[in-house]
Amino acid sequence: MRLFRLTAVGLLALSITLHLASANAAVKPGKPKKGKWEKIFDGKTLNGWHNYLKQGQPVSDKWKVEDGAITLTQGRAGDLVTDKEYGDFELELEWKIAEKGNSGIIYHVKEDPKYKATYETGPEMQVLDNERHPDAKMGRNNNRTAGSLYDMLPPTDPSAYKPAGEWNKAKLIVKDGKAEHYLNGKKIVEYPTSGPEWDKMISESKFKGWEGFNKYSTGRIALQDHGDRVWYRNIRIREL
Q: Which CATH number fits domain 33-239: 2.60.120.560, 3.40.1170.60, 2.40.50.100, 3.30.530.20?
């Protein structure tokens, strides 16, 4: 009988301990869970993508899938955008640009007929042949070179870029009002997406006075048709 009472007391103490631990865990702030990685290009088709302002229509045949990569074979195809919209996210992909080529990765794109192009609303991570395309010499302080926040912030380490014909691994993180650009494992651009610092950058850029630029906290991701041959592969994203 005594053994039974001791066992009961022990079980009661254990129960109280577990309850308190559970309660403490419930009130302690923890890191928010990240979403699972999702492939947004299957390597074979353009499922999940459409031309800007043409959802539900066939993608232009100037955008093709070749050797596991999305490629723009000639210009005037229109930008390619995701069917899905994203807010905070981490995007990874690889890109390769042809000689004298120009393209870009644009995010938070608002798909609305009043905006004729993706770049009217979405900030751009530049994709460029720095050695041969004239855009590299335009703008201020290299803020139109590969990996830059286009026309706003230059890459802090230009050596992170690999030249035309070589694959570059890019990462773009947008979270809690901040964004980071990575190229080939190096963080090269970091900025707030709102507030006084952002407003100052806008005021000194070509986007000054643009009605819809960066006014949306969610939107589509776009691969830009700038008229030049470009390749994108191993595209994946996770929501944050």
A: 2.60.120.560
